[in-house]
Design brief:
By secondary structure, this protein is mainly α. The protein has five helices and no strands. α3 packs across α5 and α4 packs antiparallel against α5. The chain is elongated, with a radius of gyration of 22 Å. The two termini are about 40 Å apart.
């Protein structure tokens, strides 16, 4: 049996019909997340993260990581997103 025959037995439409029905869905959280990253509070956190990353990458032997700076930045962005995302839900 071919692939189309197996799909017909399982009740799935053939591949060509399936491709026509698919829409490119846009996730609104991506746009909201980008907007939130540009806010002044989050932008300051991003600057701290960038400075830390540059410092760590400039050293050959260091135990320093930028985990806390990353968490602070992500927390800021997530807090902003959480306030705006629900207006986009159906």
């Amino acid at each position: 049996m071919g692939g189309d025959d197996e799909r017909r037995l399982e009740g799935d439409p053939p591949e060509d019909e399936e491709e026509e029905e698919e829409e490119d869905l846009i996730d609104p959280s991506d746009a909201i997340r980008e907007d939130c990253q540009e806010l002044s509070d989050c932008e300051a956190m991003k600057a701290e993260l960038d400075v830390c990353n540059a410092r760590v990458e400039s050293r050959s032997q260091t135990e320093e990581t930028c985990t806390q700076e990353l968490f602070d930045f992500l927390h800021c962005v997530d807090h902003c997103v959480s306030q705006k995302i629900f207006s986009h839900l159906k």
